[in-house]
Amino acid sequence: METLSTDRLEAERIAAIRNANVRDPEEFRPGSYGCHEALHAASMLTDMVESHLLKHPAILLNDDLCRHTHAIHAAQFDLYQAIGEKHLSDQAVVPTDTL
Length: 99
Fold this sequence. Notes:
Elements: H1 6-20, H2 33-54, H3 57-60, H4 63-87
C-alpha cells in the first residue's frame, strides 16, 4: 500500500466527505452520537485485531507478520484514544434533550 502525500490524502478526504453525503456535520462533532459511533467502531476493531490476529497461530509463528500486526494494533489503539480524547473533550456537544 502506498503512503499518500498530505495533499493527496486531503483531496481524498474531501472527496470521501462529498461521497458520504453528510447532510449535517454537527451530527458527527465530538460529543455527538455520530462521534460515539466512530469511537465504538474503533474500539471493536482494536479488540478484533487483538483477538483474531495477534493470537492467531499463523501470525504468532511468523515474526514479520507478528511485527506488522502489533503495529496495526498499536495504530488502531492510538486512533481509538484520539477519537475518545476529542469525543470527551470540554468542547464536546451536549445534547439539549438531556438537560
